[in-house]
Amino acid sequence: MVDAAAMDKPTEGKTNLIGLTRDELKALLASIGLEPFRAQQIWTWMYKFGIVDFSEMTTIAKATRTLLDEHFTISRPRVDTDLQSTDGTRKWLLSFPDKNQIETVHIPEEDRGTLCVSSQVGCTLTCTFCHTGTQRLVRNLEADEIIAQVMLARDKLGDWATVNGSKGKEGGAKKSREPGQSEEEDGRLITNIVMMGMGEPLYNYENVARALSIIMDPHGISLSKRRITLSTSGIVPFIKRCGEELGVSLAISLHAVRDDLRDELVPINRKYPLAELMQACRDYPTLSNARRITFEYVMLKGINDSDADARELVRLIKNIPAKVNLIPFNPWPGAPYECSSNNRIHSFSRIILDAGYASPVRTPRGQDIFAACGQLKSLSQRPSKSRMGSVPSSP
Predict the structure, then answer these.
(1) Confidence band for 333, pLDDT divided at 50, 70 and 90
(2) Is residue 60 domain-shared with residue 206, that is, in the same domain?
(3) What's the whole-number mean pLDDT along residues 250-270?
């Protein structure tokens, strides 16, 4: 059970345990005289049961729990706003101790619940159709800040495994489990994670990789790599590494089939043009008919939505196990584009389907709370040069 009062305890001077590897956690515990096996106990309580108060870790002796509380914390970001759409989509604006903010979105569907997770405050890139792209990069998120989005969402949805039939923070009781028992993914409200929130994940690869490794750990949150999708605008040097080290599903924010147009819509294309990007996709380590690459394509009226564009898209992805997600453009204040008509989108989709590729049209979700694809943005500002020190640079 997640105790809201415990989440508000003073944490100044204490080390946050979220985001540490097991070896790091063991070393930290050893520094205060605790045995290595305590690391697995704490890991299970944090990542399987969502416990934030050491006093609730009942498999650990009371004196040890007191010692842990003196030195460490299990911190969540603060929730500044919690909005729910008429379609059930839920968006949280989260604040970190440095006052920077990000947005995280949960999208419930009949057969799954998808959590859209951010990797940066602002964004490294400046894609012209994306609201997040109008917010300059402030900083990368640390691994604990990425993991904490998942943990906070599970707090809010009551989606943790339960101990002895106790209830989640906001949800009802689930099947009773004792520490050490496995938790099936079926029945979860968060079944899938997409790294499609604010930021370019591959420009924060080390933190994203560490976070996803912990999220996939079978003794904790235990989400399968097959249920995690990382979306990139095409940072070619990191694509192969992502497949080799993480093995998660890959999504490519394509949005144009010619270099001249993609240079405009997705400016990183000037550094990694389409030929290089498509070769990186063909070489993706986990690529198979069962593990297809998803190509995301936002439909912009009169810009990239012609039949000729659709045919060129088919040519580009030839011999790549793939599907194409067509995304109706989600408007935001001051946006320079309009969404293609329904007829145009379905005509575009039909050409791709006739070529043998799945081409679903994504149903916009959470538009009324600006939680739809391309609409996320916070008010965090990049510091002035006199205050900023070093801001993470692009690889």
Answers:
(1) confident
(2) no
(3) 96
Residues 6+ apart with CB under 8 A from 234: 252, 253, 266, 268, 269, 272, 277, 280
Mean pLDDT of 92-103: 94
Question: Are 69 and 189 part of one and the same domain?
Answer: no
Band (pLDDT 50/70/90 cuts) for residue 128 is: confident
> Measured between alpha carbons, how far is 238 from 236 in angstroms, rounded to an integer?
6
Among 53, 47, 50, 48, which Cα is nearest to 65's? 53
Domain region containing 375: 78-381
Q: Does the pLDDT of residue 374 top 70, yes or no?
A: no
- 58 and 96 in a single domain? The answer is no
pLDDT of 366 > 90? The answer is: no
Nearest Cα residue to 326 out of 311, 340, 337: 340
| Domain final residue, candidates 49, 73, 97 | 73
Write out the catalytic residue numbers.
103, 373
52 and 145 inside one domain: no
Closest CA to 155 of 8, 17, 372, 370: 8
127/273 same-domain check: yes
Report, as an integer, the average pLDDT of 158-175: 60
pLDDT class of 125 with cuts at 50, 70, 90: confident
